[in-house]
Amino acid sequence: MSHHPDNTSTVPVADTKSGLRHRVRAWKQEGATIGLVPTMGALHHGHLSLVKRIREACDKVVVSIFVNPAQFAAGEDLDAYPRQVADDLEALATAAADLAYIPAGGEIYPDGFATLVKVRDMGDILCGVHRPGHFDGVTTVVAKLLLQCAPDTAIFGEKDYQQLQIIRRMATDLDIPVTILGGKIIRDEDGLAASSRNVYLSKDERKTAVNLPRILQDAVARAPASKDLRRLERDAAAALKKAGFNSVDYVEIRDADNLALIKKITRPARILAAARIGKTRLIDNMPVDPAPPGG
Ligand code: PAF
């Protein structure tokens, strides 16, 4: 257990898995329940809302910060990804997290590491088409974090909705004894979903970006009565391009649980989208609920 050199606040830091386990074991012996918030740092109010939410469910809150190379493909923004550990620790102290787990790379991927945790099918659609291997990197690191920390509950933001559903599938399939919670999307005043990548946007790009939630909202309103969801998706993608997005990776309406493509909104669904402005790739999603009977 150590304090990070830049840390001016009081949240303790574990930088090894043995330090983490030692602390968690002591808490469990006292009868405390443990919540884990896995993050890649660059914490914003979306992450802090996850800390707040999991605190309602657990006695002790661990926040991990690890920029996971395995979920970045060659040419993606691994090197540019914002790293600001001192600020993160300050934010975690204010949010009254109980422990920050900031492992060095070797704690997660020691020499000789050769295992991949892969959720089939669900990882190959939506973002999986445009970021091959991404979700395998996510599930591998999340499996490790869950095994290292052994929390009662872990929470992931609904902003990365596909990731959340894949992690739920993995935890069920591998009998990992953890409850997975989803945290609601936190939006800035202009409607843009909070994301560590929003810092990449110029002022003008940000003005374009806010069209993403607006256009999705419009599709959400139309979807329950729509007889052609594929057309609705195409229209939304065209609207994004017209609004100034350089390219649209996808706009799709899928079952909210298993992410299967659906033809009609008869049970809870989700609209999910990814689109690019300049070099920045933004994702967003919203619930689509069936129209109330007689409505
Ligand atoms: O959502 C993220 O920040 C990451 O994908 C996660 C879950 C921390 C795994 O690296």
Describe the protein.
- By secondary structure, this protein is α/β, with parallel strands linked by helices.
- The chain folds into 2 domains: 2-183, HUPs (Rossmann fold, 3-Layer(aba) Sandwich), CATH 3.40.50; 196-288, Pantoate--beta-alanine Ligase, Chain: A,domain 2.
- The protein has helices at 17-29, 45-57, 85-94, 105-108, 127-130, 134-149, 161-173, 203-209, 211-222, 229-243; strands spanning 13-14, 34-39, 60-65, 99-101, 153-157, 179-183, 247-255, 269-277, 280-288.
- It has a 6-stranded parallel beta sheet with strand order 1-4-3-2-5-6, sandwiched between helices. It has a 3-stranded antiparallel beta sheet with strand order 7-8-9.
- The protein is globular and about 55 Å long.
- The model is unreliable at 1-7 (pLDDT under 50).
- Bound molecules: pantoate.
- The site of pantoate has 11 residues, from strand 2 and helix 6.
